């Protein structure tokens, strides 16, 4: 009986030790489980926070995307309008360029024609000038001969009788007329 009692008591002690061991293990597991729960709770809160931030970021991104799309459409519309305006201006400038080019060609043709006419006019003017100079030289020679003859006649008239004094005055008047005629001929622009 004692042996059995001791044996049972030993089993009880072993069972208590085992129970104590299991209890310690259970407490350790409970502590670990508590840590795991707390960690899980923190993870869930962090995940919730991340989801909220993600949702906010997604909404912000959608707003930004919408604004960017609107800005892009507006910029595209402005670019199309500017392109249309530049295209119209280009057509206008091209037409003006064609007109100026045509006017330049017409002016070049007109310039060549006027240049040819000017050359012909110069040749004709040169011929006329040479002819007028020749005629002037001939007239001057004739007038010089006339003046010389009148001077000789004047000398003779001075020696003549006083009765021909009126004739001398007439001859002097003729000399004055010839002098005026000579000056008038020298002042003519065609003979200059």
UniProtKB/TrEMBL annotation:
<dbReference type="InterPro" id="IPR042336">
    <property type="entry name" value="GOLIM4"/>
</dbReference>
<keyword id="KW-0175">Coiled coil</keyword>
<protein>
    <submittedName>
        <fullName>GOLI4 protein</fullName>
    </submittedName>
</protein>
<feature type="coiled-coil region">
    <location>
        <begin position="5"/>
        <end position="60"/>
    </location>
</feature>
<feature type="coiled-coil region">
    <location>
        <begin position="90"/>
        <end position="135"/>
    </location>
</feature>
<dbReference type="GO" id="GO:0000139">
    <property type="term" value="C:Golgi membrane"/>
</dbReference>
